[in-house]
User: Fold this.
Amino acid sequence: MNDREGTALQIVAYCCHYCAYAAADLAGVLRLSYPAEMRIVEIPCSGRLDPLEVLHALELGADGVMVAGCLEGDCHFQEGNLNARRRVNHIKDIITSIGLEPERIEMFNMSSAMGKQFAEAATEMTEQIKELGQNPLRRGV
Assistant:
């Protein structure tokens, strides 16, 4: 199955520059594998997560969204990751109200040295989305 057939899962991972994106990079350097369904988008801070952008990704057919930020209490922008967690919870409420499962979006916290944990979180998120199946909003489904 491939993306062109519209059958492969598509998961967008919004990763903060300082920690989660660096952890994803470390996972690659360590040659740790994580699911190919993951599409990583680097953002300056998880606190800059735009709920409209997440909703737009889901509207366009993303099957799930992973948000990854710094460890709680260690955000490079003080409380950015706490703001991101509040936004993720708000997005869960919104997508529930339109009939999507709230488990389609999850927040993970990690440091830049946690490449193994990034790969594990990506795998966990992918397995969770596989259980839910494709996003019913995906065009052509």
